[in-house]
Amino acid sequence: MKRSTAITILGIIMVLSNCATFKTDTEGSSGLQPEKTMGAEPVDVLFVSKHLVQTRGLDAVPKLQNRYRILDGYDDILLDATTEFSNLNRFAAFTEFASDMSDPERLALKDSLMANYELRIAMQFRNEKSFSKYFLGTIGSVLSLTLIPIPYTHEYYLDVEVFDDGGRLIKTYSRSAKTKKWIQAFLLPIYPFHTEIRKTEEIYVDFLHDVFREIDADQILRAGKIPDK
Q: Taking 80 as the threshold, does the pLDDT of residue 212 lie above it?
């Protein structure tokens, strides 16, 4: 009887256990407000994205995520962010995968796209976490039956490079932010409003909108040259 009671209590605790995720402000934010400049000549742009993930202490190098593991809805987020540009004309998006190295058709498609667009905006997203912190956090969660709040941190980075039609690097941009997911029993009431997926999406939205806004303010799409400032 005592054993079954303990199992029942453990099961109730695990059912009630939940998590809530919070994000930091974006580091490196431009602080610019949306502002359109009308009358500029339309420009064709190719957006090239890659998504890397690395568990520090476990992975020797960052790994390219496959098409099934990148952020769900990323294409919609990218499309929405393009509204920050004042004179974006024809555009296309290409996402790099590790398997592309052995896929001639994909490589040919990328080369063809690069040859047919005036500017290329290359974006590298990186998601990092610490293996040691996750390992210790998991032990703490298990030993305390999730009664002790345990934080799990993900670090997100975005590095952007803008190239002209000759392949010259015009300018670079970078942003960073973190999410902290708290694991603790009885977090269910606030969980629906602070899910990990939502906070990750918010970071991607902030990253892209702010970088594209700064690119537009630098008038790179209008001049196609290195800005004076």
A: yes
Q: Say how many residues make up the chain.
A: 229
Q: Give the H or E element holding residue 50.
A: strand 43-56
**DSSP string of 62-115, one letter each residue:** -EE--TTTSPTTHHHHHHHHGGG-SSEEEEEEEEE-GGGGG-HHHHHHHHHHHH
User: Domain count of the chain?
Assistant: 1
Give the contacts of 58 (CB within 8 A, at least 6 positions apart). 131
pLDDT at 8 over 90: no
Measured CA to CA, the distance from residue 81 to residue 34 in angstroms comes to: 11
Residue 13 lies in a domain: no
Is the separation of the CB atoms in 44 and 87 below 8 Å?
no
Mean pLDDT of 143-155: 73
Q: Closest by alpha carbon to 162, among 127, 108, 118, 126?
A: 118
Question: Does a structural domain hold residue 108?
Answer: yes
CATH at 83: 3.90.950
pLDDT tens-digit readout, 35-74: 887 778 899 999 999 999 999 988 889 999 888 889 999 9
- Dihedral angle computed from the Cα positions of residues 54, 133, 69 and 195, in that order, rounded to the nearest 10 degrees: -140
Query: What's the average model confidence in pLDDT over 204-211?
Result: 98
Domain that holds residue 209: 41-129+155-176+198-223
Residue 107 placed within a domain: yes
The tokens for 79 are: 């499309």
